[in-house]
Amino acid sequence: MTDPRRLHFLSAALACFAGVSFTIVHPVLAEPVSGPIKVIRTEIDGNQESRLNAAYRAYQAGDIGAARSGYEKVLQAYPDNRDGMLGLAACAVVEGDVKSAVSTYLRILRAFPQDVLSRAALIGLQGDRQGEAVIREFLSRQPDEPYLHVVLGRLQAAQARWPEARRAFSSAHRIDPANPVYALNLAISLDRMGQREEALEYYRVTLKLVEQGASSLDIRPVIRRILALRQ
Predict the structure, then answer these.
(1) Is-contact 142 114, C-beta < 8 A?
(2) C-beta neighbour count of 32 within 10 angstroms
């Protein structure tokens, strides 16, 4: 499975842009990759790896400025470092800089054309039927990657196909039950289907998971929704 650090970046991207719609037109999104999908990692020295880890800790703590600065320093030394670019894209997402986030994901794809994580992020933000076909192709090869189920669910949710979205979000949560964003996605889909008790359960699971580990997820809307459902 993919590095949890990378999955956290994608989860954050999808959560932050849950209500944003924009279109990306780029040839790399048009067709699924052919042949086996390879996860390619750029080799870096120990000092830069320490910088990556420090930037990630800053990101988790909500210090986006420090995180962005750390990733930029890594990329100054290693311009095509995948983890550095993923981190930089995630920072742009949190800051609401859609243009920079998209530009960075496309930069990753220029360096690593088969990068499933970046393609999934762009497709999830693009939200079209063609993108759904690509994600299903990815899932046929990597059925245990939770972020692919999340992207599929978001595409379906954008079209109000809530029963299908719920199944996708449920799969993501089953594969990675410790991720609060996956639990939240499932709660929202159940809520939109009118299954209030089940939704309330997973909203509570979301809060518990956030309390148990570092997360940049804003829990205030979750708390408000729990209070509303309990009335």
Answers:
(1) no
(2) 16
